[in-house]
Amino acid sequence: MNDERHDPFREARVRAVADTGLGAGGDPVFDRIAGLVRNLLGVPVALVSLLDTHRQFFPGAAGLAEPWATRRQTPLSHALCQQVAAAQGPLVITDARADGRCEANPAVAEMGIAGYAGMPLTDTDGTVLGALCAIDHEPREWTEAELSLLSDMAVACSDSLRLRITSRHAEAARVSAAAVSGQAYAASQRSELLLTASVLLAGARTVTQIVAAIAQLTSPAFAPSHVGMVLLDAEQRLEVFGADRLSDDVTSRWVSFPTSAPVPAALAFRTGQLIASGDPASIRADFPQLADDVAALGWQAIAAAPVPGIRGPLGALTFSWDHSLHLDAAQKSVMVTVAGYVGQALQRVIHLEEQNTAARTLQQALLTRLPDTGQIRLAARYLPAHHGDLIGGDWYDAITLPGDRLALVIGDVSGHNLTAAAAMSELRSMLRGFLIDRLDTPSAMLERLDHANHALGADTIATVLLAYLDRQDDGSHLLHWSNAGHPFPSVVTTGGEVATLPGTDPLLGARHRRPRSTHHYRLPPGATLLMHTDGLVETRDGVIDDGFARLHQFLGGHRDTAPAALADQLVEYADTRIREDDVALIIAATAPADGLTGRPAAARCTGTA
C-alpha cells in the first residue's frame, strides 16, 4: 500500500481536492457519471473517489452498499485509488482477493471488492486527485473496450472537476481579470447545463421525452441553434429525431440515412468520436453533400457526439450554431457527457419497454380464455393499477366440469409486479389441476390449495373465491362457493335487486389447516353474478362499505346490460377513481326464463362446512 508520507504529489493533490469544494456527500453531476459507468459496464458498483489528507470520499457513487452509501467516505487504509495516485495511471485488477497489490487492503473484504478498474482523475496540472472506479464483486477480466470507455468517462469526469476548481478560483479572486471571469462564467454555465441535462433526462421515459429534453439544453456558454438526435433503427439505418422543428423541405429529405452516409452523425456513430466543423468553409470541405442544406438552414457550425450504449453506440447527438464556433476541450467534454446522459436515458427506455412487453405478454398468457357454456353468458376483465405496473397478482378463471358444472375463480395475491404474478400463476395452476382432478366441494378444494401452498414452501398470502354453478331443471342455477378472505360476490336479479353473498374464511397462507365453509345460493333465471377483486371497491381514502354501496347502486342501474357490455362499463367505472390496486372481475349471467314476469322469488343463502 502506498505511504502518503513519501508521496511527492500529496500537497498538490490535497490542495486541488479542497479547491473542488466537494466532500463526503453526493453531487448530482458525479452521481450521474457513476450511474452511467455502472450501467454501461454492467458492474454492481461505480465510484468517483477523491483523496485528501486522511480519507477517500465519494462525491459520485452508484450501487454502494451500507454503511458506505450513507458515509460516502472511508479511511485511507481502504483506498485502492491511492495506488492510482501513486502510479499516476490506471489500476486494473482481475481479483483483488488474490492480488498482492491489494489483498491485504481491508476494503477488499469489507466492501466485497474482487474485480477493480480505476482510471485517474486529474486537475489542469495533471495532478491525480483520485479515480473513477468500476467494481465487481466477482473476479473480472476487463476488456479493452470496457477500459477505453472507463477512460473516456474519466476524462469527462476530470473536466467537471477542473470546471469546479476553475469556478471556485475565479470566485475567490472576485473575477480579478476579464479572461478569468469569462472562463469561470463559462465553466459555471457548463456545470449548470450538465446538471439540467441530468435532471431532464432522469425523468424521461420515452424517446419523445428524451428528444424534448435535449431540445432544452441551451445556456449562454453553450447555445446551439438546434439539438437533434439520430438513433439506429431495426433496419440498421439512422433515424432522425427532432427534425420536425426544421423546414418541411429538410425534414422530408432527412428522415433516415445509412450509417455509411458522409455526414457528421453517421461518422460519429461509426468512429465513436466527437465530430465538429466550426465554420462554413470547414463544413463544405468536410461534408460537401451536406453543405447546401446547412447553409439553407443558416447554420455556420455543426457537431455530432456518439450516444453510447451497453452493446455499442445507439446513435448520435447533433448540434448546430448560427455562428462560427471552434469547440474547446471544455465544450467538447460537455457534449460527450450529455451524449452519455442520453445513452443512459435511452438504455432505461429500452429496458422499460422490454419489461413492459414481457409484462403484457405474461399477463395475456395468464388471462383465461372464457369457455362457451351455452346457458351461462360470461365476461371478464383485467385492469392494471394506475401507478403504471402492467401485471400483478389478480386473476380470474372459468372452467367447465363434468355434470354440466361451471367453476368460477377470482383471486388476488398481494402486490402488482412480476413477483406477485409468479406467485399468482403458481396458485392458479395448482387450483386448475385440483378442479380437473376430482369433484369436491369448494371448501375442500381451497383446503387442498392451502395445504399445497404450505407444503411446497410457497406460503403465498392470497384471497381466493371459488364458486360452482350447477344448472337446475327449472332454469335456475345452484351456486356453491367458498371464500378465502375475498370481497363478497354480488348478485343482480332481473328486477334490479342487488344482493351481497356473505361468508368468508381466513386467507390462503394465513392459518394452515383451518376448516373452511361451503355456502349455497339459488340463482334465479336471468340473474347476474359478479365476482371481483378489491380494486373495484377500495380507494386510497374511502371506506370499503361505501365502495360496495356505490358498486351496488351502479349494478342496480345496469340490470339489463349484457355481461360483455357490463364488464366494459365496470372497467370505466373503476378507471374514474384513483386506485392503488389492480382490478380483476368475472361476470356470469344465467339465461332468462321464457315468459318470466314480475320479480323472482327471493333466493335463500345458506352455508355448510
From TrEMBL:
Checking SUPFAM superfamilies in the record gives: GAF domain-like, PP2C-like
Record flagged with keyword Hydrolase:
yes
Asked if the record carries the keyword Hydrolase, the reply is yes
Q: Where is the PPM-type phosphatase domain?
A: 371-590
Question: Which InterPro entries does this entry report, sorted A to Z?
Answer: Bact_Sigma-Reg (IPR052016), GAF (IPR003018), GAF-like_dom_sf (IPR029016), PPM-type-like_dom_sf (IPR036457), PPM-type_phosphatase-like_dom (IPR001932)
Q: Which UniProt keywords apply?
A: Hydrolase
Residues in GAF domain copies: 25-171, 206-356
PANTHER family per UniProt: STAGE II SPORULATION PROTEIN E, STAGE II SPORULATION PROTEIN E-RELATED
Q: What is this protein called?
A: GAF domain-containing protein
Species name: Actinoplanes palleronii
